């Protein structure tokens, strides 16, 4: 069965430091993987997606993620956190049905 | 209005009430979805509509009744709900059918509280 596991329910970083949000997936064949972000009182917004093209995917707001088949991972990174990045982040697998991870809450300290 | 809108944004109802949630997408999409987001649980897909036809119902209790009169509008009719149905209900739409490449665009959600 397909699934994603977000390894951290909460990540806290200081403004200007790197962000790493971890996601591992389980799938019987090559999946599509997405990262969505949800700001307070807002709907989810797509950050980036992997659909079997380039393994390093660049998204909006300086985020990127790398698909690593050998590690079954799709971690989300950003070189320098901004206060506006504080939100809930969801890793999503589509194979073919869409399954959401439990979410990682990112806190950014000034 | 642009994107996906949902009304009302907040709703409080008793267990014997009947209410409806409304979703409208202004993106010209052909597929629409209802999701339930409960605290500390992954987002749960409830219903999928493609070209006004329901193509997926993920074992949702019958006290939730969806309606899709056209590709731009989606309703969720609620009756005799339980307190555990309290959650954020999200609507989404996508250009193409529910598959591995079509990005879904989400509305802001309706925060439902059942007393």
Secondary structure tally, helices of chain B: 0
The percentage helix of chain B is under 10%
* Secondary-structure class of chain A: mainly beta
Helical coverage of chain A, percent range: under 10%
The SSE string of chain A, one letter per element, is EEEEEEEEEEEE
- Which strand-content bin applies to the residues of chain A? over 45%
Annotation field: number of helices of chain A = 0
Characterize the biggest β-sheet of chain B. 7 strands, mixed
What's the story with the biggest beta sheet of chain A? 6 strands, mixed
Count the E strands of chain B. Answer: 11
Fold topology:
The complex is a heterodimer of chains A (110) and B (115).
Chain A: E1 3-6, E2 10-14, E3 19-21, E4 23-26, E5 32-38, E6 44-50, E7 56-58, E8 64-68, E9 73-78, E10 87-94, E11 98-100, E12 104-109
Parallel strand pairs in A: 2-12
Antiparallel strand pairs in A: 1-4, 3-9, 5-6, 5-10, 7-8, 8-9, 10-11, 10-12
Chain B: E1 4-7, E2 10-13, E3 18-25, E4 31-37, E5 44-50, E6 53-57, E7 64-70, E8 73-79, E9 87-94, E10 105-106, E11 110-114
Parallel strand pairs in B: 2-11
Antiparallel strand pairs in B: 1-3, 3-8, 4-5, 4-9, 5-6, 7-8, 9-10, 9-11
Give a written overview of the molecule.
The complex is a heterodimer of chains A (110) and B (115). Chain A has 110 residues and is mainly beta. In chain A, strands 2, 5, 6, 10, 11 and 12 form a 6-stranded mixed beta sheet that branches. A 4-stranded antiparallel beta sheet of chain A has the order 3-9-8-7, with no helix packed on it. Chain A has a two-stranded antiparallel ribbon with strand order 1-4. Chain A is globular and about 40 Å long. The mean pLDDT of chain A is 92. Helices cover 0% and strands 56% of the residues of chain B. The N and C termini of chain B lie far apart (32 Å). Chain B is mainly beta and 115 residues long. Chain B is built from no helices and 11 strands. Chain B is globular and about 40 Å long. In chain B, the strands form 2 sheets. In chain B, strands 2, 4, 5, 6, 9, 10 and 11 form a 7-stranded mixed beta sheet that branches. In chain B, strands 1-3-8-7 form a 4-stranded antiparallel beta sheet, with no helix packed on it. The chains are: A mainly beta (110), B mainly beta (115). Chains A and B meet through strand 5, strand 6 and strand 11 of A and strand 10 of B.
